[in-house]
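Hello,

Our lab assistant flagged a job as stuck in the queue for most of the afternoon. It eventually completed. Since we weren't sure the result was trustworthy after the delay, we are filing this so someone can double-check. Below is the sequence as submitted and the structure that was eventually returned. Let us know if re-running is recommended.
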Amino acid sequence: MKSHVTFSKNQRHGIFLLSLLIIVLQCVYFFVDFSGKDIITNDMELAKFTKEIDSLKAIELEARKPKIFPFNPNFITDYKGATLGMSNQEIDRLLNFRKQDQWINSSKQFQEVTQVSDSLLKRISPYFKFQHGYQS
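-- returned structure --
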């Protein structure tokens, strides 16, 4: 049993035109340069838009930074300490201090217990809020 397919004249013309179209498009793709080297740009305008995009990116990054609100450093959790920039060891020192039922009463004592760097202490200590309302 042989199955012999025959195409009508219109179908043969359609297959020929489709094949010809595919070959022409392949030749155009292969031989035509689409690199766009001929695009003329205004360097001053480009620099202006680049600067504007960079400033918008900086604003977005600043908006995404976590906000720091006043907090009692005696109740810092692992997550809160990590968001403040504390290392795991510094957080563990604080948690161990608290396990002994002791309380931190000043920025100086916080640094003595946790051994955080001066720069980190300077950055986060303005947000310390102790129960009795003072910090040193």
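-- support follow-up --
The delay was a queue issue, not a problem with the job. The result is valid. The radius of gyration is 35 Å. The chain has a mean pLDDT of 88.
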